[in-house]
Amino acid sequence: MKTKVTRKEARKHLEQFHLAVELVKVIKHFFPDLA
């Protein structure tokens, strides 16, 4: 049985992924020695 992902759920996951990417950019910007 395949789990069906609704459009709303997919958008929520996409937003979380986007936030994570932005967070990584900020961390790399402020802490270049950590990256």
- The arrangement of helices and strands along the chain is H
Q: Give the tally of structural domains.
A: 1
Radius of gyration: 15 Å
Overall pLDDT confidence: 91
Q: What characterizes the major β-sheet?
A: none
How large a portion of the residues is in β-strands, by DSSP E? under 5%
Number of helices: 1
Question: Can you characterise this structure?
Answer:
The structure is a single chain. With 35 residues, the chain is mainly α. The protein is 69% helix and 0% strand. The protein has one domain. The N and C termini lie far apart (40 Å). The mean pLDDT is 91.
Task: Write a brief structural summary.
With 35 residues, the protein is an all-alpha fold. The protein has one helix at 7-30.
Defining key terms:
1 helix; mainly alpha; 69% helix; 35 residues
Walk me through the topology.
Layout: H1 7-30
